[in-house]
Every structure is written in C-alpha cells, then in structure tokens.
Request: fold
Amino acid sequence: MIIDVLTSLFPFKLHMTILQLEGYSYSRLMSWINNNYFKREIPVKRALKPTLKVYSIYLLSIIWLISFSLLIILWTNNLFISLLILTILISQPYLFYGLSLLVIKPVEYLLKFRIINKTKKKILSLNNLEVVGITGSYGKSSTKEILYQLLKDDFEVLRTPESYNTILGISKVVGLELNNKYRYFICEMGAFKRGEIKEICETVVPDYGLITGITEQHLERFGSTKDIVDAKFELFDSVKSANHFVFNLDSVYIENELFKRKIKKVIGYGIKPGCQVSVSKKSFSKKGSQFTITINNRNFRVFTYLFGESNIQNIAAATTMAVLLGLKPKKIVSKISKLRPVPHRCYLQYFNRTTIVDNTYSTNPLGFMAMLKTAKMVKGRKALVTPGLVELGEKSGEIHKELGKLAENIFEKIILVGKNTRTKNIFQSISKKAMVEFIEDDRITYSTKIRELEPLFDWIFLENDVTENY
Reply:
C-alpha cells in the first residue's frame, strides 16, 4: 500500500522506463509526459533494463535533487515551504533526468568514440571475416535469422542476437564473441535518423549488404520518407561493390531510388522481371507455408514451417544473399524446409480448434498488408486483434483507414486495442460497425479477450502488441 502511494506520487521508475523505451530521447519523453501527465503505470512487455546508463542517470538525479534541496532551504529559510517545493520537484523526476542527460552526453560521446575505434580495429584484424549488413524498414531480424540458419551448417557464422542493431549493441557482440574462427558476421543495422547506419558501417565495415524494403515505418521519427530512404541507402553507399548488394525490388521506394541514382544492374528478389530470386504459387495452412521459389530461373516447390506472406518474402531475401555468398540452390531449398519459426513474427500457436498467428513483435504498413493478404487465403472463421501502427506521422490517418477497408472483407470480428486516433481511423472506414469491438490498451484485457475468442474462431491474427509508451 505504502509503495503504491509512493509510486503514484513519485514516478521515478515509470519515467525512466519510458525514457529507455524511447532510446533516451528527452524530447520523446517530454512528448509522452505531455500526453500522460497523470499516468503512473503502464503495461510493458520490456521491463526497465538496469544498465550502466540507467544507474548513472539515477545517481546524477540524486545529486541534482540534493543540490536543489540545499539551495531551496537556504533560499526560503522555511522548513514547510522547502518541503512543499521539494515534494513538487520530486514528483517530476523527468526534470532531473533531463539535466542528467546533459551531463552524461559528453562522457557518453567520448566512450562511444573509443568503443567504435576498438570495434573497427578488431573487425579489420580478422582477415578471414566478411561482414553482411542487413537493414530496412521491416523484416531485418527475421531475414537475419533465416540467413543464419541457411549458412550455419556450411560456414562458421555469427549474427547479432535478437534485435541488437545499434552501434553499442553491435560493438558489444563484436567485443565478446567475434574471433578468427568466423567466416561471416551477419549484422542487423537499425536507425531512427540519418547517419546512424553510416556510423555502424564505419565501425563494422560491411563487405555485403541487403535492404529488406522501405516503408513509412518510424516516419514520425525520421521526419520524411526521403530521410528514411537516405538512411537505409547509407548501407549501400558503404559497400564497395554493387555486386555484393541485394535489394527488395518490390519496394517502390527502393525502385525509385535506384532509378534516381541511375543504377540499372542490381541483384534482387521480388516479382519484377530480372530478379535473381522470386516466389509464386503460395498457399498457407495451419502447418506453415508452401510456395514455388525460382532461383536463377530454376523452379523449386518447397514447404516451410514459417507462416505467411512476410516470412516468404524474408526467405526470398535470405536466399538471394545465400546464393551470393556461394551456397548452391539445391542446398538452400533443402534447408528452407528445416527453418525454425521466430517467436512473435507470424508465429503459429495452437489452442484446440484455434490457430493464433502471433505477429506482435512489431509491424508496419506493408507488413500489415501482407498479413491481410495471408488471412484472405486461409479458410475458416477469422478474427483480428490490433492496436494499429505507431510512428506513421502525417500518413497515419490515411494508412489506418485503408487498412480498415481491407480488413472488413476478410475478418468476421475485429478487436481494436485502445481508443486513439489509430483505432478510430480504422473503425471509421469500416461500414459494418457491429463486427468491431474496442478494448482497453492493457495486457490483462488483451490476454483475456484472446482467450474469449479462442472457442469461436479458427484463426486469430494478432497484429502488433499493446502499445506501451504510445
């Protein structure tokens, strides 16, 4: 009881959790504070990680608090007024976090500079190593994992774990795990602004590169689609030879950028003519996916436990890179049937009659469209549970209305998680209002609703998770 009261009055942990979720961006923390000033608890799937940076911010905040306390006591010379002012200040921990970040930034920059140099030196010292960089608005982690599974029996391969795709996370992997035994290092590269992928490339010096696709994902952070394209193409600009690069040629933004740069001969995958790898004749079931994959004009009919349109695209991406790295098509095809699914990325879960398609790790406009395309192809009663898509900026309304129109003709039931501009735009575009139900945006309500749906539907598609800090 006492702890609950203190947490309500002094939300130190909550504000720190949001700050960490937002990549320690103080402006984004303040944006959250403005919209959630009185909120003292949120459901999170990623708890606060007690990192050195978190402890440093806490310590500096305590120092700031003590300093302000002494100044206030000296200034007011009144114990009651001093305690009142201090209580107000302590209830606003984000103020101290902002000051602490200002102090940390120069030190952090120097440490980062040292880490980058040390990582680059180690990469360049490994003469047998070749680095494969993977970036894009979506599918990075899944493509990385699939490529790793295709290569690992024939080569010594290290990949960045989970979603370690920032400069510090990658440097940690290089420092602790990379050594002379490895032939390939598959490095996922993420970014929220221009220059971040370039910085990663200057550190790990990629020999090969792959862009999985570009869409409006994180448009709110980048500011414009041009900045997103420029950021992703920093990987292409860092790889010495265009013959060592793979593109998703179905991506309109990639196609336009290649045309703009007058780049004609490229290695790519997709449905367009000239692709080295393409997929066709797709079908989906509760076991997985079947499709025909064409590798350098040779057709192979394959089955995979990976489910859905998005996963098939990721397989095509990884296959194209695997061929480029020297793996034979027949060997790749034999390995596709042995690929293991990645949790929360179109991951199939079975409950009596119901199959749940868990795509809750993250999603994007094209990923959502791919899910709708997949759902349309499977038989049975279907339900959709989604909070919509975040960080789409000015295009959010348009995209969500389009998704709502498409979903209406595929699902018997649509559950919208939370009442916000995203879900309201989806609801607005659906003519059959009775098929839609709003639920609270919290994990308990979300899980309870899924259990209620299980006896009623053959398929439940979970597209994106509860939205935590949004």
In short: The radius of gyration is 24 Å. Confidence is low (pLDDT under 50) at residues 1-6. The chain is about 50% helix and 15% strand. Residues 2-109 form one domain.
